[in-house]
Amino acid sequence: MTMIRPADSSLAETSPLQQMGACPLCGSAQHRHQYTDPAAPEGQNRDLVECLACGLVYVPDARELGFDDLPASAYLNDWELLDLSGVRYQYDTLLKAQRLLGVKDSRNPATEPALLDVGCGAGYFLDHCRAHGWQVTGVEPWREIAAWARKYLKLNVLSTSLARATLDERRFDAVTAHYVLQFRRDPVAFLRRCHALLRPGGVLVATVPNFGSREREVQGWQWQQIIPYAHLVYFTADTLRRAAREAGFGRASIELAGGEYGDAQLMLSTRRTPEPSITWSDLSGTIDERKLPVLDRETVDESRLGPTQQAWRDKGFLVRRDFIPHDLIDAYSAVREKLKDVNGWRSPTPYLFVPEIRELCLYQPLCEILESLFGERMGMNLTLTGWVSTERAWHQDDYLNPPGVMSHYCGVWFALDAISPESGPFEFVPGSHRMPLIRSDKMLALLPETRVQDAMWPWYSERLLTPFFEHEIDRHELPVEQFIANKGDILIWHSRLLHRGAPPLTPGMPRKAIISHYSSVKHRGDVRKIHKQHAKGYYLEFKTAEKIDTR
User: Do 184 and 214 meet the contact criterion of CB atoms below 8 Å apart?
Assistant: First the structure.
């Protein structure tokens, strides 16, 4: 198989930026010469320069290499080299990108997800995706190869460039472009076109050679991917991420893979940010900050705060490593393992009938930390005991409480074993607790009356809130962190901190944890009885709760 992918010649003329020799990423005309290829064909581009403003390496005054009229034999030149393992890898990467970005697995044929593969070649990847329930479309300017894909694989492959293709905008659930972007004289324009074709929330996966790889450092200008007359832009992880941002995409993930050092290629996964139907003014309003916890108020004498209180005020979370004694964890785990349901007890208050939960989640040093953060007695009021990711999308906890709680509330994530990054760990946005306070009455006013009366209203509210939060994360480029933990580690988070249970990269992979929530005792008017565990530990029994052992 040929090593060079066909260029997608979607611009008939050289872009204005490239006519001026300007950087196709940031537009700067300030650059320095890096390399001239002595082996370039006569009349073809030979020089590589580096932009002094953004660091992109590119060919100035670029002219794309045309592949449209090459014979099929130049592509299908050696069947013995055909290796479809790469097709499976690309497909697995697409599904992984969907999970990383919070998009549900689209393999259910009933959903008929739509995929566009740009520079699809003979269509092997499209054929694989079609077999897994996707509606597939390809774009391939190499005419004979596009015809081959239509004739022998019965695929819908358009013999044209991406820019000239007649395609409906907002149509596709995913767009893929493997080893195409480096051929483009204007990669940002290419990515903008991909963005326009994706529905809100749709995923883009693009692969390019990694100019920042160890392989390139070792080989220098002899690196096999340096082909100035064909490859017109040379990406590092930073410049590739910036190109996606310039094209309008949201939060991006870049994976390194391939080559002797495992970093020969960059695989970009990003998406078109969902478009929210609500704004902060729909969700929040003026708050009497005297009703908030002291550390949440606008004006606080920070000189009187300890390190733990200051960290809580600044970031909205605390991490304590190897904090919970292992004997408490082992005692609870022995009881929990008898329950054969990965989702744990059905009751939201299993601590009422499982003493091992109380011993673990009301560990006295933890209760002392919670009291120091809120200045009040804190009582355990909700416990989740599943051993797989909740897969809850981005949300806050505060608005789900009775109105009087007013952020006197927090959660604690307990690791009962080593937590794999592939299991769907707890993810959060540091500092997001300083976002406006969402009021439950304003949230309920946005829902149909039938939903308001339904006990499932928090899940209905997420249909509005999840795209809103995702838009906020992307628009402000907010950092997202994962809590990768070992046995005994805990994370305490603010009730307004944006967080989610990440979709597992390996579906169903165990994630042994217990998640407990705590409210200020005096701010809960719906409590039947306050139970005391020890000097600082309390747990709440609600008026609607039944103390039934469901083990």
Answer: no
